Amino acid sequence: MASWPTPLERMPSLALALGLGEDDLWVKRDDLTGLGGGGNKVRKLEWLAGTALAEGATTLVTSGAPQSNHARLTAAAGARLGLEVVLVLTGEPSASESGNLVLDRILGARVVRVGQQSSAEIDEIVQDVADSLRASGSVPAVIPFGGSSVLGARGYVDAGHELAQQAPDLDTVVVAVGSGGTMAGLIHALGADRVLGVDCGATSDPATIVTGLVEGMSPGLEIGKLRLRLDQVGGGYSELTSQVENAIVMAARTEGIILDPIYTGRALAGMIAAVHDQDITPGRRTVLLHSGGLPGLFGHRHAVSWAGELTERPSSGP
Q: Quick check: is 316 catalytic?
């Protein structure tokens, strides 16, 4: 459903701005996967939607936050495969629904808004939706939150092997951690010592979730200690922090690369903190996984107004 391998590109200006060597910092462009606006969830959906299709499904059902990139790409996968899609999204409808929600509608998904609910309550609602579809003659397949399951995580085992071929001297790949499957797949392929996860606050216990997914793929595998930063969540998943603001501006004004305020902005903010902590050091190949998410920037309640207040870049440099 996408274009592989995704590019691996140098980021020399950002590297020098952070005190690294100009060949030390690279970006893995999983925002350029193609389908439905691109992003990391396509790798998971190749496995999940492909399995659903093989099992005779006619409808995909999944859940997420209002600006869920996973929901958008599930809608796109359904459109590509000729399947109906129902998205169960938290939050109340607003007067202006922008960002990913616009794309969900364009892609033809039916959106069910359920207000503020716990994870367990959302799971129950998803099952109720699936039961209702089944009763009406459809064959629903439930795609897990974020596409993160043992099956979905295999998409990032593939990505890890792809990255190892592109950068055999890889020291660290930095990745945003939401529902856990991306980090888990990379660990399975590359080892825990080469994967630095930056928690985004999507789950209450990311370490347990990531560990469980890795063990589910290979029971008995010695995982080792996770490299997981928990210092970029700020006031919560949907909040835009000053560290993330700074990271977004730095990437844009040094490399012309746009990050989002929930995932990739946090990943770069965590990477910057890791450089300051000397967990990432000059002379070693570091790769930032750009997992996509640009449409979510336009639907973020603070990001658009914050960007409107930014000053122009000084003529002396970024």
A: no
Residues of the chain with pLDDT under 70: 94-96, 313-318
| Calpha distance 142→52 (Å, rounded) | 9
Does the predicted model carry a pTM greater than 0.90? yes
The pLDDT value recorded for residue 316 is: 40
Q: Is the peptide bond before 5 cis (omega within 30 degrees of 0)?
A: yes
Give the model's pLDDT for residue 315.
43
From residue 293, give the alpha-carbon distance in Å to each of 145, 271, 283: 16, 18, 30
CB contact burial 199-215 (16+ within 10 A = b; e otherwise): bbbbbeebbebbbebbe
From 13, 68, 148, 291, the catalytic residue: 68
So what's the pLDDT on residue 221?
Answer: 85
Q: What are the C-alpha distances in Å from 49 to residues 10, 141, 181, 193, 257?
A: 33, 8, 15, 31, 30
Q: CB of 32 within 8 A of CB of 3?
A: yes
Measured CA to CA, the distance from residue 310 to residue 249 in angstroms comes to 9
Separation CA 191–CA 223 (nearest Å): 7
Give me the domains of the chain, ranges plus CATH numbers: 8-38+150-308 (3.40.50.1100), 41-147 (3.40.50.1100)
| Side chain identity at residue 164, one-letter code | A
